[in-house]
Amino acid sequence: MTKYKPLKEKEAIEYVKGIEGLFDDDAELSCNEIGDGNLNLVFHITDQNSGMGVVIKQALDHVRIADDWPLTKERVKFEYTAMKIQDELTDGMVPKVYKYDDEMALIVMEDLSSMKVMRKGLISGIKYPHFAEQISTFLSKTLFYTSDLYMAPKEKKERVKNFINPELCDITEVLVFTDPYFDAESNNINPELRPYLEKEFWRKSELRKEVTVLKEKFMTRAQALIHGDLHTGSIFIDQKTLKVFDTEFAFYGPSGFDIGAVIGNLILNYASWSGKEVSTEFKADYREYLLDTIEDIWNKFEEKFRKFWDQEAHETTKAVKGYQDYYLKQLLQDSIGMGGCKTMRRCIGMAHVEDLDGIENLSERARAQIFALKLGEIMVTRRKRLATITDFIKIVRDLTAWEDTTNM
Ligand SMILES: Nc1ncnc2c1ncn2[C@@H]1O[C@H](COP(=O)(O)OP(=O)(O)O)[C@@H](O)[C@H]1O
Ligand SMILES: CSC[C@H]1O[C@H](OP(=O)(O)O)[C@H](O)[C@@H]1O
After folding, report:
1. What are the domain boundaries of the chain?
2. Could you tell me what reaction this enzyme catalyses (predicted)?
């Protein structure tokens, strides 16, 4: 019989006390359940004497925000296994793991609460000058070294098999690529946005077709071991360091889904300033920072990825003239397209983001949501015309100039 049960705060304390060498014998432990995500329990346990802390992340047997949606606890295994691989490849850009307990469906890990969840930092208008450098390192290393460009074919296929993660992929297939594009029951719709959806957005058949093309790529392209949910709420950051967490959606999928998740979430923050009471100068300056960051992320990613390729790809791959340029152009287009889907789902689908939902006035929120939807739409429909990241930045600027002159 399995010993699994969801922990209560007191039990979480007892659990960590049982891990040898983690806390001093005289530790005075206190615990708070701090989970603010959609799926799991998260306990923050600290020693009042030393200040040392740890975090326990435990899976429930259902979706935390929808208790009639059952979900496999096996997701913790995917999270732990992917974290180990990412840790080795990136030299520690993920939380340290102190213990993985398969039966209890939990991970005890490094306490990162001295850092900030990046989404919250962006909402407060904080700039992170090293972010592009850091996240491009994470992306280039994880997406190159887990792909067929580097791995031996049999070893890679074994990995693909071990990372078949159907239930978590199903969430993405439904909530990112399907439901937002019609009046689905699972959607979560601002009433002030509904007229735009009914009169315009849900009638865009070309958009829905192109989203379905990207969905098929998500479902079938085992290009690299991707994080699978790399939004700005899955990143802890301060002015020096970055850590990526919440890896339970990991599987072998299209690399552009991770790059797109980062870009799409910066675009969501970009759109959110439409609905906020800040000065025109602040808004323009912060938006420039976000666009510069997106441009830097791609350019630094590309430079690093090409370097790994030139140094460490299979000789037979290296010998094929023009293939590297082809691969990177496809990847740029996939990234922008997938990023567009990630942008749109957060305006209509079940799970929103605080960048937009923090705008209390519903008509102001709808204004920012419509801007985000228009940005998401062009990311999907114009992606195949993009040759460089600068082409993308230009279309964002053009749409922004248009938004500034209209009452969307
Ligand atoms: N290692 C950690 N250190 C400190 N806080 C954490 C850590 N991991 C998670 N958290 C907190 O718990 C929240 C939910 O964690 P997350 O892994 O995103 O869970 P879920 O999968 O339910 O979304 C995060 O937003 C963060 O505030
Ligand atoms: C019903 S799960 C919805 C949503 O939640 C996940 O995000 P997070 O774990 O960071 O809260 C993921 O994006 C899912 O699509």
Report:
1. 9-110, 116-405
2. 5-(methylsulfanyl)-D-ribose + ATP = 5-(methylsulfanyl)-alpha-D-ribose 1-phosphate + ADP + H(+)
Q: Which mutation among 120, 167, 171 tests ligand 2's pocket best, with the greatest number of atoms within 8 A of CB?
A: 171
* Centroid of ligand 1 to alpha carbon of 242 (angstroms): 14
ipTM, 2 decimals? 0.98
Q: 238-255 burial string, b = 16+ CB within 10 Å, else e? A: beeebbbbbbbbbbbbbb
Give the pLDDT score at 1: 58
Query: What pLDDT does residue 408 have?
Result: 60
pLDDT exceeds cutoff 70 at 329 = yes
In three-state secondary structure terms, 290 is: helix
pLDDT tens digit sequence for 263-304:
999 999 999 999 789 999 999 999 999 999 999 999 999 999
Long-range contacts of 29-36 (CB under 8 A, 24+ apart): 33/9, 35/64
Report the separation in Å between the CA atom of 17 and the middle of ligand 2, taken as the mean of its atom positions.
Answer: 31
Which ligand 1 atom is the nearest neighbour of the CA of 39? 22
Pair 90, 185: CB distance under 8 Å = no
Q: Domain 116-405 adopts which CATH fold?
A: Aminoglycoside 3'-phosphotransferase; Chain: A, domain 2 (3.90.1200)
Q: Quote the pLDDT of residue 255.
A: 99
The amino acid present at 211, given as its one-letter code, is V
Q: Report residue 381's pLDDT band, with 50, 70 and 90 as the boundaries.
A: very high
160-196 burial string, b = 16+ CB within 10 Å, else e? eeebebeebbebbbbbbbbbbbeeeeebebbebbeeb
What is residue 359's three-state secondary structure? coil
Is the predicted pLDDT of residue 166 greater than 90, yes or no?
yes
Q: Which ligand gives the minimal distance to the CA of 95?
A: 1
Tell me, using a 6 A CB cutoff, whether residue 246 lines ligand 2. Answer: yes
222 lines ligand 1 (CB under 6 A): no
The pLDDT tens digits of the residues spanning 225-268 come to: 999 999 999 999 999 999 999 999 999 999 999 999 999 999 99
For the domain covering 9-110, report its CATH number.
Answer: 3.30.200.20
Dist CA 369 CA 189 (whole Å):
10
